[in-house]
Specification:
Layout (H helix, E strand, L loop, with lengths): L6 H17 L20 H23 L28 H21 L2 H5 L5 H11 L3 H16 L5
Helix pairs in contact: 1-3, 2-3
Length: about 160
């Protein structure tokens, strides 16, 4: 895993990755938001909604921890081995709404990064929700993780298993 020198470098990389990712949806019309293509296992709407779901979870975990609440990872709604369903929380939104929501979440994550000191941000065991997420995820079926990662990789590379 890459190590970042400071907050600014981390935020720069986040925004660079976001800009590259979101640009892939610039030419997709709303009429194709639910179209499933052979090369990709998620529709454009599902793909964006999945990212909105993940970023929303991270923001919720941090907000709950700051408010002194017990953080339930991944959420009260589902377990780690159900993350493939994450997109369903937001798939009802239009592509434009999803793109805006994801941009807002990415900006909020950058604000969150700014609010943490270097130790909180870069040293292990500084955020309870991150430790809890690691502990609870360890017990799940490793094949489910690998399947999700494989799906995500195929989406990114636009390839399929032959």
């Amino acid at each position: 895993m890459r190590v970042y020198e400071n907050k600014e470098e981390l935020k720069t990389e986040i925004n660079k990755a976001f800009d590259k990712y979101i640009s892939e949806f610039d030419e997709i019309p709303e009429s194709l938001k639910d179209k499933r293509f052979d090369e990709v296992d998620r529709t454009p709407s599902e793909n964006l909604a999945y990212q909105v779901g993940w970023t929303s979870l991270v923001l919720k975990w941090e907000e709950d921890e700051r408010n002194g609440l017990e953080v339930k990872t991944p959420s009260n709604e589902f377990k780690w081995n159900q993350l493939g369903e994450l997109y369903q929380w937001f798939a009802h939104l239009s592509l434009q709404e999803l793109k805006v929501k994801l941009k807002v979440n990415v900006n909020s994550i950058c604000v969150m990064i700014d609010s943490l000191n270097e130790e909180e941000l870069f040293k292990p065991h500084m955020r309870k929700w991150a430790d809890e997420a690691t502990k609870t995820a360890v017990g799940i079926d490793k094949r489910a993780i690998l399947q999700e990662e494989d799906k995500d990789e195929r989406i990114r590379t636009n390839t399929t298993d032959d």
